[in-house]
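User: Hey, quick favor. My workstation is busy. Could you predict this chain's structure for me?
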Amino acid sequence: MSKTSVKKKKSSLDYPLLARKLIEASGDAGASKLPAGLYVVATPIGHTGDISLRALVTLASADIVACEDTRISGALLSRYGFKKRLISYHDHNADERRPEILKHIEDGEAVALISDAGMPLIADPGYRLVRACREGGYDVTVIPGANAALTALAGSGLPTDEFHFAGFLPPKTRARQKNIGGLKNVPSTLVFYEAPQRLADTLRDLADILGNEREAAVARELTKLFEETRRGTLQELAVFYGANAPKGEIVVIVGPAAVDVAPAHDLDAILKNYLRTMSVRDAVSAACAVTGLKKSEVYTRALWLAGKNSG
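Assistant: No problem, here it is.
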């Protein structure tokens, strides 16, 4: 089992001053008011310096900032020297607050939506608000930025060409095990978020259901002072974190399932069977799930078989 950890030096930068200078340098200082609409703004997942210039300009210009926890977001904004009107928007009050936010936009205001950290809507509330804005004809602008899942995946050393983001697994054991079982044969790298107090139990369930020897990585405190990524098999990681309680925000990366690659003649038989009742697109998706072959390869073969049958 390998570990990479990075202890980062605390920054001594004056972020409020830096933010002002960056906004001035961008030419957007004193610019006209933001057009009415919803602005989905990514914020750092840890390191304050990971905010984008466009995010700074948007947050500086927004009339209102909607956020999960006003205390957390208030502290974040103050780091950059911003004092904004904050309204809470989270899973427990979303139905009540959504019409209020839409009314602000209808009245000509620019509302920035942020989460406690990272990219809003990714394992966070917000998609219903975006959908309501789209359905109401209001503008929605996304200002991209840091994301814990992609950061962990990029640093894990596990395959990145295809991945399945599963968010948070259920906290209760039986529901979690059922959820993991449904992912057993997914031929892609799996990405999960997990709470530190549940990590050891989750790793044990992953090992029991997906296989003790599946490659995996646990990334925590990404971009923060004690950032760490630990690589190993699911069994090794389950044993380690069973004995060493972790702290901080955690991402679990599990390597793709090993698949038996079907010979060409077997692939033809599989595709012919699916093509009897499915469209080419659906037949290709089903065959890829069964064989583990690349979509481009299966699609080329499916088109050839479909053309041969129609000719």
